Amino acid sequence: MAQLTYRTAGESHGPALISLIEGMPSGVAIDLAFIDGELHRRQGGYGRGARQRIEEDRAIFLSGIRQNATLGSPIAVQIANADSRIDDVEKTPPVFRPRPGHADLAGSIKWLTMDCRATLERASARETAARTAAGAVSQCLLRAFGIECFGFVRGSLTTTSAIEPSAAMLAKLRAARDASEVYCPDAVASEAIVSAIHQAKVDKDTVGGMCEVHVFGVVPGLGSCSSSDLRLDSRLAAAVMGIQAFKGVEIGLGMQAALRTGSQVHDPILFDASLRGESHLGFVRPSNNAGGLEGGMTNGMPIVVRGAMKPISTLLRGMPSVDLRTHESTQSQYERSDISAIAAASVVMENVVAFEIARALREKFGGDSLSEMRANYDSFLAAARRLGE
Ligand code: EPS
Question: Which of 212, 159, 205 has its CA nearest to residue 347?
Fold first, then answer.
């Protein structure tokens, strides 16, 4: 059994983006409508720029599936770029005035060039379409085990929604989120975020925000405390920080845990024998400050991850910068961009989190086919239920 991994390739204005996924078991039903739906959601949200009117992202499977089910072989997914013009110097000119906050300056020094385009084409968040595709494929595996992921926008600037998602509310939450222009299921908060983005547009400024992902139905025991790179919380943090423009990650109570005493932070452990059954071991946690992870392992409670996205670094009014050819002070170069991509970021975050859960699920239950993996999963749960009997 290969480890579940993925890599992406592709530039923002190159011919296409590619995702190469390895380690999926055979026999997983691939829900093409769901995957294209995730790609479509990622293109949306109030505050997006003109590029999204040009693109219509679709996942084209080049390998690894047959009759809409995985074969167990590497899965290559292609997303074509309609706005493909990377070699057209008139339409895609060099960029010599780096944007503060973007990869422009650091990349130009790293690759020893004065043309920031050499860096920005790959640094662009266009690449997150390929990551969303990989995550959506992994969600097809998760769903076979009853695991559901829900990503949304928690807030931006002065607005923070107090909504508390639960598995029982999932269908309603998804409907409310999908009805919101900024993917925030709280209608009042959604409206406030839309107005903040609108104001930023008027001011030729940009806006970031806070995204959150809840994962329901995860079996206890994924991840491991045995070494730091196997801790699922460390992997989730790396996956979320790997999203363009993310500057912070929290699990459960996150940073707030440092400001409270132990008795105010740790979730009590109770046992209710009447709950013991097929998918419940009987342990009850009346709170979930741990965000479903203790010792780097899932504890059976929903996984809760929050990520902070900084504002887009391309400002219509520019920012103080320097011309790399002359070192003279100037305003940063304007490139067509978004005012806010926070809604899109919540879709990306849901899918990168999903991939890490799927990776941990593959590590624990192995198998080359879904049926072999399922048998291992069932026998683990049966053994866990026998503990203490
Ligand atoms: C981005 C700049 C814009 C965004 C892009 C991210 O691209 P363009 O320069 O082509 O208008 O639209 O995001 C996407 C294309 C996307 O699909 O998410 C940047 O500089 O990061």
Answer: 212
132-139 average pLDDT score? 98
Residue 29: how many CB atoms within 10 A of its CB?
15
HSE-up of 43 (CA within 13 Å, CB side)?
18
Ligand 1 atom closest to the Cα of residue 124 is 21
Complete domains list, the chain, with CATH:
5-386 (3.60.150.10)
Give the pLDDT confidence score for residue 46 in this predicted structure: 97
Cα dist. 377→61, 213, 235, 276, 362 in Å? 28, 24, 22, 17, 10
Pocket of ligand 1 (CB under 6 A): 12, 49, 51, 83, 120, 124-126, 128-129, 314, 335-338
Q: Catalogue the E-assigned strands of 232-371.
A: 246-251, 270-271, 283-284, 293-294, 297-298, 303-309, 320-322, 329-331
pLDDT tens-digit series, residues 53-94: 999 999 999 999 999 999 999 999 999 999 999 999 999 999
- Reported pTM: 0.97
| CA 157 – ligand 1 centroid, Å | 22
* Three-state DSSP state, 128: helix
pLDDT band of residue 158 (cuts 50, 70, 90) is very high
